[in-house]
């Protein structure tokens, strides 16, 4: 191992003769100057974490998949490959165990048959429409439903895990007397608009230096870093969608049905010209409506923007927007509610309200590395209940949007794969 510019590099232990039985491939690997013998430790650890997640969450993969397993591979373990295949959510999947093959599967001496098999699989799947499982009832059946039920279930009293999470809750409660962020979380809910606005501002506060240090650590947790990246993606795609409307000569009439404080919408409009014709922000919370109206005035948008109280799941009320919006935003809302009928009603109301050709920006949370911490230790905006989230795979979220009458056109995701932001167009 050697260190270079603050990062550790690890030299590969793999010998060329362990990769393939093909002498030409072995010579190529040994002599190719573009093949690096060292890998960054950070990259190696990142690859390991990503691979572990892919295996654990393989049920979310819906596309046809062919797995080619080299049976004599000295470089990687076979068990995770088997687990990955068993957990795959694909309706069409194949597994081929290749006796005697080394790691370089498609560079082996006897690769002709394997290449022919892969070619057959690819061509046959492109000859017919993609066949995917219907996920509209994934809130009642399937892996994420079972996962959320397990997180909701109480732990055996006085078990080690019960003691661990009770201690964690007590520790966080005690730290909230010092940390400004934890205090906001316990007062309004860690999933509230007030909490999100605090995370967006990303300015540690608290009692004395220790309180600010605790708050800095809290604000730097991976979930909140992902939230701030989601905000950047929201702002980017808001400007993108407004540009698409302007290109076709259509007005920008923007509505956000669960805006929190509305910071990401209002900050996305900085340096935008021309501004939208109208902006309507809504939220269920009186606190969010009050603070959102203050932000509108601070940003000098009082002439075109208003913030009112509204229910994001009231289909009839959403359908009555006048004038009809051409750009709608739903950010961080559907992730908080496990039940798909609620989401269906909300999306149906938006679809009724919007003009054909308008755009919908929506967020998703297909994965989160802190689900148990959130469920066992943090409280929600709903009368202090436990904050138990049911993950929706991206495929499930996209199917719900499509069922309401929208066609997805693009997507952004953070580097950890936690939060996504997508754009869809209203179609006939």
Describe the protein.
This protein is α/β, with parallel strands linked by helices and 428 residues long. The chain has 2 domains: 2-126, Alpha/Beta hydrolase fold, catalytic domain (Rossmann fold, 3-Layer(aba) Sandwich), CATH 3.40.50.1820; 222-426, Rossmann fold (3-Layer(aba) Sandwich). The chain is built from 16 helices and 12 strands. It has helices at residues 23-31, 41-56, 79-87, 112-126, 143-152, 160-175, 180-188, 193-201, 208-219, 222-247, 263-268, 286-298, 315-318, 340-353, 371-377, 394-403; strands spanning 2-4, 7-11, 38-40, 65-70, 93-98, 253-256, 278-283, 305-309, 327-330, 359-364, 406-413, 420-426. Helix 2 crosses helix 3 and helix 7 runs antiparallel to helix 8.
CATH fold annotation of the largest domain = Rossmann fold
Order of helices and strands: EEHEHEHEHHHHHHHEHEHEHEHEHHEE
Find the count of extended strands (DSSP E, 2+ residues).
12
Measured as a percent range, the helix fraction is: 40-55%
The mean pLDDT is 94
Q: What structural class should be given to the helix and strand makeup?
A: alpha/beta
Q: What is the CATH superfamily label of the largest domain?
A: Vaccinia Virus protein VP39
Largest sheet: 7 strands, mixed
Shape: globular
Report Rg.
25 Å
CATH architecture of the largest domain: 3-Layer(aba) Sandwich
Count of distinct structural domains = 2
């Amino acid at each position: 191992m050697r260190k270079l510019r603050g990062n550790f590099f690890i030299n590969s232990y793999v010998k060329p003769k362990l990769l393939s039985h093909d002498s030409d491939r072995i010579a190529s690997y040994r002599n190719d100057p573009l093949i690096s013998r060292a890998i960054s430790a950070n990259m190696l650890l990142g690859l390991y974490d990503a691979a572990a997640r892919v295996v654990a969450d393989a049920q979310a993969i819906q596309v046809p998949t062919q797995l080619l397993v080299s049976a004599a591979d000295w470089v990687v373990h076979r068990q995770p490959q088997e687990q990955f295949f068993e957990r795959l959510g694909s309706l069409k999947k194949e597994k081929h165990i290749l006796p005697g093959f080394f790691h370089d599967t498609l560079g082996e001496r006897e690769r002709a048959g394997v290449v022919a098999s892969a070619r057959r699989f690819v061509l046959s799947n492109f000859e017919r429409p993609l066949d995917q499982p219907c996920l509209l009832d994934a809130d009642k059946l399937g892996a994420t439903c079972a996962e959320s039920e397990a997180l909701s279930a109480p732990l055996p009293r006085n078990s080690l895990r019960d003691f661990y999470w009770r201690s964690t809750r007590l520790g966080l409660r005690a730290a909230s007397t010092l940390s400004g962020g934890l205090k906001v979380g316990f007062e309004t809910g860690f999933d509230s608009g007030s909490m999100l606005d605090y995370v967006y501002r990303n300015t540690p506060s608290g009692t004395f230096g220790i309180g600010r240090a605790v708050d800095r650590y809290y604000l730097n947790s991976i979930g909140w870093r992902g939230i701030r990246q989601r905000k950047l993606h929201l702002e980017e795609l808001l400007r993108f969608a407004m540009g698409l409307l302007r290109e076709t000569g259509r007005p920008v009439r923007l509505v956000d049905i669960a805006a929190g404080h509305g910071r990401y919408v209002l900050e996305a409009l900085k340096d935008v010209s021309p501004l939208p014709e109208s902006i309507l922000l809504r939220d269920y919370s009186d606190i969010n409506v009050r603070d959102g109206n203050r932000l509108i005035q601070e940003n000098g948008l009082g002439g075109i923007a208003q913030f009112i109280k509204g229910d994001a799941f009231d289909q009839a009320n959403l359908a009555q927007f006048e004038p009809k919006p051409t750009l709608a935003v739903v950010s961080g809302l559907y992730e908080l509610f496990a039940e798909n009928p609620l989401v269906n009603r909300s999306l149906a109301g938006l679809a009724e309200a919007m003009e054909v050709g308008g755009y919908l920006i929506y967020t998703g949370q297909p994965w989160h590395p802190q689900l148990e911490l959130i469920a066992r230790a943090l409280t929600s905006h709903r009368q202090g209940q436990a904050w138990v989230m049911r993950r929706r795979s991206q495929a499930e979220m996209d199917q719900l949007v499509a069922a309401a009458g929208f066609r997805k056109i693009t997507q952004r995701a953070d580097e950890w794969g936690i939060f996504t932001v997508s754009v869809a167009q209203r179609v006939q």
